[in-house]
Amino acid sequence: MSTQIIDGKKIAESVRLEWRVRAEKLAQLGIKPGLAVIIVGDNAASAIYVRNKVKACSDIGIYSEVHSFPETANQNEVLTCIQTLNNNPHIHGILVQLPLPAHFENNRIITAIAIEKDVDGFHFYNVGALVTGNTIFSPCTPYGVMVMLQRNLINVEGQHAVVVGRSNIVGKPMAMMLLEQGATVTICSSKTRDLSQFTRSADILIVAIGKPRLITAEMVKPGAVVIDVGINRLADGKLCGDVDFESVSGTAGYLSPVPGGVGPMTITMLLCNTILAAERAQAGVRVSYSK
Ligand code: GUN
Fold this sequence. Notes:
Structural class: alpha/beta
Radius of gyration: 19 Å
Number of domains: 2
Bound molecules: guanine
Helix content: 25-40%
CATH architecture of the largest domain: 3-Layer(aba) Sandwich
CATH superfamily of the largest domain: NAD(P)-binding Rossmann-like Domain
CATH topology of the largest domain: Rossmann fold
C-alpha cells in the first residue's frame, strides 16, 4: 500500500496566506489584530512555543505582547493581568500558556479570560459551545487536524474515528469535532485494555497520548488515515511522534509526520482564531449570552 504523507507545513502555509488577506482587510479599516500571551515559570518547551507564536504573529500581521511571570508569581497577579487585557480594545486574543505552576488553579485562570478573547477555546463556556455544536473558537490543535483532513479531501462522515488520548487540549475537543462532522467516534486512553482492538478498527486514527512510537503497523487498518499529534523528545534530542512512522508507512493510506505534521497547524489555527476575534470585535458581534 502506498502511503500519502500529509504535509502539515505546506497546508499551514496555504491557510496562512488566506488569513493574511483577512488581516490585511482589517488593517485597511485601521485595525491590527492583537494577541497577548501569558507565560508563568521557566518551562523550556513553553518558552520555545511562545517564541514561535510571537514570530508567527509578526509574520502574518498580528500585534503580539508577552507577559512573563516568574515561577513564584502569585495567582492574583496573573488574574489582574488577565482582567486588564480583557478590557484592552487592542487585544483581541488572550492565551495562557500551559502548564501553569502547581500552585495555580488552572480553571480559575482560564475562566478569567473573556469568552470572546479565549482564542484557545478552553473556557468552560467555549467548551460547552463546542460540545453543543455552537462553536465560538475551535481549540487550535484539533482544529488544525480537521483542516488537514479537509485539505486532503478526507471525508469524515460515517467513518469510524478513533482518538487515542483524552486531554482537554486535544483528545476531548478532537472527539467532539469529529462527532459534529458525522463520524462515529471512539475515545481511548492510557487506561484502555487491548488498545489495538480499537485502533485496528479505525478508518481515521488520531493519536495524542504522549508515548513515543506507540502505534505500529499491526495496530493500523490497511488504508486508514493516521494523524500523529504526539511530540516527544528522545534521549538523543530528536523529536518523534506517538506513531512509529517507519512501521506504519506502507500500511496507512495517509500519514502525518512528526515534525512537519500537526505542529505547524496548531500555531496557524491560533493565528486564524486571533484574526477571527478581531473581525468579530470590528463587526460588533456578540458571542456570549453570559453578560
Ligand atoms: N500547552 C500545550 N498546548 C497548548 C495550547 O494549545 N494552548 C496553551 N495555552 N497551552 C498549551
